[in-house]
Amino acid sequence: MKTSLKFLSALLFISNFSFGQEVFKKIDSIIKDSNQKNPNVGISVGYIENNNTYITSYGQLNTQSEMKIDQNSLFEIASITKILTSNLIAQAVIENRLKIDDYIDSYLSKAYVLHQNLKNKIKISDLASHQSGLPDIDFGKLIELNPQQPVSSVTEETLATMINNCTELIDYGKYRYSTIGYTLLGQILEKVYGKPYDEIIGAKLISPLKMTNTFTKNFNVKNRTVGHNPDGGIQEFFKWNVTASAGLVKSTAADMLKFLKAVLNKETVVGKAAIMTEKVYYKDAKREMGLGTNILTDDQNTLYLKTGDSMGQSSIICYNRAKNWGIVILLDQRNSKMRQNLLNEITETVLK
């Protein structure tokens, strides 16, 4: 009887793996076709289904290199960092270090002095679901000042001044994408753990998941891609600074699949935290939001996803918990339209 069960288990594994291979062949065909139409855009795509992982990549690290992009080539994942930060927040909830509906007041450093109108108003969940009503960074002005490193002029002092000068939450409770919100979440994590954000994410995500090619402050590695703006001009990787928890982690297709593998396993700490981030915290006619996670639902599927755009790269991470698959797409050019078109084609023609 035991032998029969082992045989059936092995047969099921082979069947699932073969099915996953067939699915990924179709995904690879879509990516290859896109590369042929856009040969100047490097791309790395990872797919996971039933714990089996598949990766395909096209293009060179840069125009001067013969080294091809592969599963370990480094990209800016940009705002996908937010889904990592929200997972860390959820882990802190699991550890009883904070509650998701706590007001932020007691978690902020002494540099922040909230106006009376803001006290005991903003919850941690409001920051994580982009409905805090707080003012945000003016990226347009920052790009004019420094188009290569626009966030370089953002400091703890400028953030505190911005928050302290806010006297009213004009659109509290309404969705408005916020870099400030996730910067504050990073600082809240630092307060409850007593460590810098890079050490926290290292200890709770990067090290335990063995994401050996995911970097925070130091990312000067040989297998790093080169970013390009929409016109094809070379764009520097963003340097680490106070806004890191909102979008400055660098990673690879292989490492992001390790994260997705943990997310899809409800028995892991990361998986339990991810389930918490999937709860709907904001909903209107246009969108549903969890904690840092966009939620797309139709009659057949519920997808959880997050996009990322730096000045020179675009990315997206998406998963379907019910059907146990996930995908990550990394581009070495800021090209949100191409990224979204690829995901749409893959989900609508292959994964449905």
Task: Please give a structural write-up.
With 352 residues, the protein is an alpha+beta fold. The chain has one domain: Beta-lactamase, CATH 3.40.710. It has eleven helices and twelve strands. The protein has helices spanning 2-37, 81-94, 124-128, 139-145, 156-164, 179-193, 197-206, 244-247, 253-263, 269-277, 336-351; strands at residues 43-49, 52-58, 75-76, 227-228, 234-235, 250-251, 282-283, 288-289, 294-297, 302-309, 314-320, 325-331. The strands form three sheets. Strands 2-1-12-11-10-9-8-7 form an eight-stranded antiparallel sheet, sandwiched between helices. A hairpin with a 4-residue loop joins strand 10 and strand 11. Helix 2 packs across helix 10 (269-277). The protein starts with a helix and ends with a helix. Residues 7-15 have low confidence and may be disordered.
